[in-house]
Amino acid sequence: MTDRVYIRPIGFAPGPQAEHGNAIRLAGGMVYASRFAVILRRDDRVIERWLAAPDTMAETLARLPDSVAAEGEAQWANLTLAHAPLAIGSRTVRLDQPQIMGILNVTPDSFSDGGRFLDDAEAGRDHAAAMLEAGAAIIDIGGESTRPGAERLWEGDEIERVVPAIRACAAMGAAVSIDTRKAAVMEAAMEAGAGMVNDVSGLAHDRRSPEVVADAACPVVLMHAPGASGEDLHGGAAYANVVFDVFDALRERRDEAIAAGIARERIVLDPGIGFGKSLADNLALINALPLFHALGQPLLLGASRKRTIGALSNEAPVDKRLGGSVALALEGMRAGVQLVRVHDVFETVQARNVWRGLRDAALTDFGDLPA
Can you give the pTM of this predicted structure? Predict the structure, then answer.
């Protein structure tokens, strides 16, 4: 019999003054939470669910069994934890507002661009430059398709694809992330100028990867995928409760990364939208994003142009999913997510800037608190 606790923010305020100060700044960002569900799970069944506010949280946590009392206290502290900026090479990316990560795929079978940036290096450079000009804080470069059914790629071929793109982006002064699950590709990418690793396997695919990332002392994104340790990232999915199961899996990946010598402040977590998850699973995870701040790490959301959008919009093709992509990006921002990985940088940055203007204005909407 195993008990687990989860503290999920469920009520939000435009600013702390709206709740007379009885709200927390979620993960040091621009979102304020005022109501929380404290959930006790025994094995695969929720056995208790309490509602709490910041001023009643201590009383609620005191109801937890001794076996999870320390975890409850840690999660509550994590929800209010302000994250330090990420040092990506010579660039610094602040995490006190949502930052946009632009996608550059150099693959022949990318679902979003059909291999255009692999076949035409100049077009890839122009696209990266346009994303930077539009406001991308990070350029994420990948050379291996991770779509369902994609063929396995030899690491040498992957290196040949990504290194020229990384060098070009680094020469522009970009903060560059390498999207790979192979240690040799990580090493070559770092040498070429990448300063961050985005591993869809959460460092589970290649046993050398944790050591490579620890030695590089660089930020790393650990994503959830049910088949992370094998070749099929999407395989083996079986969830009793997708939200709690992904939360538990990311906590395990975080702890294993720390045990491997990776500094906790360099770890970013990603729930892996679309990887071994049904439409219902993806929607549940997106709705529950605020919960994942209880893990105490910055969060990344990658939902741009994904199948979920098509499924909710009459099977719209990939090039017709801009509206859905922006909608999901904004949902991530409302959940306090720090990094949003997208194909359409200009539109998402514009949406972020308008969203931020609304958040800033909301801090003065209620006037002075009563004496």
Answer: 0.95
